[in-house]
Design goal:
The protein is an alpha+beta fold. It contains 24 helices and 20 strands. It is 50% helix and 15% strand. Helix 17 packs across helix 18, helix 17 runs parallel beside helix 19 and helix 21 packs across helix 23.
Length: 617
């Protein structure tokens, strides 16, 4: 059953509409089926008459032959033409057998006029779509030529016996969530696809329970070695006019390469990865997506991407993976959380400023209400241990300082966290200082937002009552020295593993992060991202517009250098660090870096004066 009314009540932004509006919408839409490969509309055609919503299947959008989006169930398209009353800006093709709900233009216009949330959703999608089209990058032959198939995530092989009834094979395909099955008949291997079933059996009214798998399968399958290159696979598919290749490793079938697998890998953008995360059925599915994050980030860095955007990209994917991991963990436990909770991310993840050298810094906050049949703290203890173990299995490195919610210090009720914050602020010394620096960039990634708000309100209230605490925290930002000598030469390590290098994090990045955090706490700024904090501090009059711009540019330059050197470390199969070699920079880069360190020193002087740090040094 298609049941459009239920469907629209479960997808955003339609779920924001009143029930009577959803019922009216469901009564006025058209439904159409598109077979795989069928064109829905072409780029440049006259203005569209419908908003298309995918009920089942998948659609790819292309502009000038370049893939700009890959859409699945619940996604909508065609709004660019509808909002602007212009010819379609892209072509749309079904990449699977697809069912579309088609909402007439007049209905779409009425909804955007009458419902602000609905209108804003499609306005924002239009802005993001235009940005995506502008930044679309063609993969090119060079990348495909050098990419071995083993780097691609392959579809799992489903092997069935040729004597099996087709009805049984179909049930196995559904159970494995596959659109094909490999068929063994003696020493031969063939393949059955959904299209084969429709065209060879269903179309002629044959009984699925009487037809054998081998009678429908195509023999033999076309095979390719796992160490062949993707470009070879493309040529082979084109030669035989097929969409799937059986992949073998030392004579053994290890998977099936589908055309859509290549499309997904070529795009490897945020939307693709988010969709893969959403479809993940287990931790092992998330492991593959996580493995791609650093690859994509390195590609963006090598293309000169803004480090602010790279950090946000990494954090966005990590957030989605963690959110899915929470759901999988709860499912594995078999018991729903007894009270409201929220998973917090801290440190650079909390600031959305992840580099390529990262680990997991997280915590949990929950309501500790008396329950008759369960101890709340024990539930979240069990949950936390399983959750962290799942993250480790996915590939998130453990935190060397054990800043993870499996550690009781980072797992507390609302009241427990408030007491902990009071202790840190009233006694800001030793380990407390480090904990504050990590924790006070916290943000929630899953769960009750109100718990996070309550925690921030308590932080701001406590900070306002302890002015000395801000001075102590500011002193931590000025204790770092920029790596410049008396004659403005770079001060580098004289021996050891990092001889001739200096730590750019300690010498430039941390003073800005720490100092900006102090000012943000003083002015009750909720943003945790350093760039956002600088902008809001400027708006509040704390910085002049000129200095805010200088500080933001300085921070961007330092972050960019760190990412650049980390990417080069990864290219050389080395563990990324925070050290850079100034001799590896151009003369212009060294000159700019010295100016940047001068801005860092100017910022530290501002902090010394504002918080009277001569009493703390």
């Amino acid at each position: 059953m298609l049941d459009p009314e239920r469907f629209f009540k479960e997808i955003y932004p339609f779920d924001q509409l009143p029930d009577e509006e959803i019922l009216r919408l469901s009564s006025n839409l058209l439904v159409r089926y598109y077979s795989k490969g069928e064109v829905i509309f072409k780029e440049g055609e006259s203005p569209l008459e419908f908003l298309y919503v995918i009920r089942k299947g998948a659609v790819v959008l292309k502009k000038d032959g370049i893939i700009i989006d890959y859409l699945h169930e619940g996604d909508s398209f065609g709004y660019v033409s509808l909002l602007g009353n212009i010819p379609s800006s892209s072509s749309a093709t079904a990449v699977e057998d697809t069912i579309l709900f088609m909402i007439p233009k007049g209905v779409f216009e009425r909804l955007t006029k009458n419902y602000e949330d609905f209108r804003n959703f499609y306005t924002n999608k239009l802005i993001n779509r235009l940005r995506k089209e502008k930044n679309a990058i063609n993969v090119g032959f060079e990348k495909l030529t050098n990419l071995p198939i083993r780097k691609i995530k392959l579809s799992s092989p489903l092997l069935v016996d040729g004597e099996e009834k087709l009805s049984e094979v179909i049930l196995k395909m559904i159970g494995a969530d596959l659109t094909f099955a490999l068929v063994r008949d003696g020493n031969a291997t063939g393949i059955i696809t959904e299209r084969d079933i429709i065209r060879k059996v269903v179309a002629f009214g044959h009984d699925l329970k009487k037809v054998k798998a081998k009678e429908v399968a195509s023999f033999p399958v076309i095979e390719i070695d796992v160490d062949a290159f993707l470009f070879d696979a493309l040529l082979l598919m084109a030669k035989h006019n097929i969409r799937r290749l059986v992949v073998k490793d030392k004579g053994k079938i290890v998977g099936v390469l589908e055309d859509r697998d290549m499309i997904a890998y070529e795009s490897k953008n945020l939307l693709f990865l988010v969709k893969d995360i959403g479809k993940a059925k287990g931790v092992e599915d998330l492991t593959y997506v996580y493995s791609l994050v650093s690859q994509v980030a390195v590609e963006y860095i090598s293309q000169g991407a803004d480090p602010e955007l790279v950090g946000r990209y990494i954090s966005e994917i990590n957030d989605k993976i963690m959110q899915k991991t929470v759901l999988l963990t709860i499912k594995d436990m078999g018991i729903e959380p007894p009270t409201a909770f929220n998973i917090l991310v801290l440190g650079s993840e909390g600031r959305k400023e992840q580099s390529l050298k990262t680990d997991q810094d997280n915590a949990i906050i929950y309501e500790d209400k008396p329950m008759l049949d369960i101890k709340v703290s024990k539930y979240f203890e069990d949950f936390s241990e399983k959750y962290v173990r799942n993250l480790l299995n996915i590939g998130f490195p453990p935190c060397p300082g054990n800043v993870m919610l499996s550690n009781p210090l980072w797992r507390k009720s609302v009241e427990g966290w408030m007491k902990q914050i009071d202790t840190w602020i009233e006694n800001p010394k030793g380990e407390h200082t480090l904990n504050v620096s990590i924790f006070f960039d916290f943000r929630g990634v899953f769960g009750s937002h109100s718990l996070v708000e309550r925690l921030w309100e308590h932080v701001f209230k406590k900070v306002s009552e302890n002015v000395v605490f801000l001075s102590f925290l500011a002193s931590q930002a000025v204790r770092f020295k920029v790596p410049l000598g008396f004659f403005r030469g770079f001060v580098v390590e004289r021996s050891g593993l990092h001889k001739g290098e200096f730590d750019i994090k300690a010498g430039g990045i941390l003073p800005i992060v720490q100092g900006v955090r102090v000012l943000a706490l003083e002015h009750r700024i909720r943003s945790t991202n350093t760039f956002d904090r600088i902008r809001e501090l400027s708006s509040a009059g704390v910085f002049s517009e000129r200095f805010a711009k200088d500080l933001e540019d300085a921070y961007r330059f330092l972050m960019g250098l760190r990412l650049k050197f980390q990417a080069e470390d990864l290219h050389r199969s080395k563990e990324p660090t925070n050290y850079i070699n100034p001799q590896a920079l151009s003369r212009a880069e060294r000159s700019v870096l010295k100016d940047v360190f001068g801005i860092v020193e100017e910022f530290q002087d501002i902090l010394r004066h504002r918080y009277q740090l001569r009493y703390f040094m």
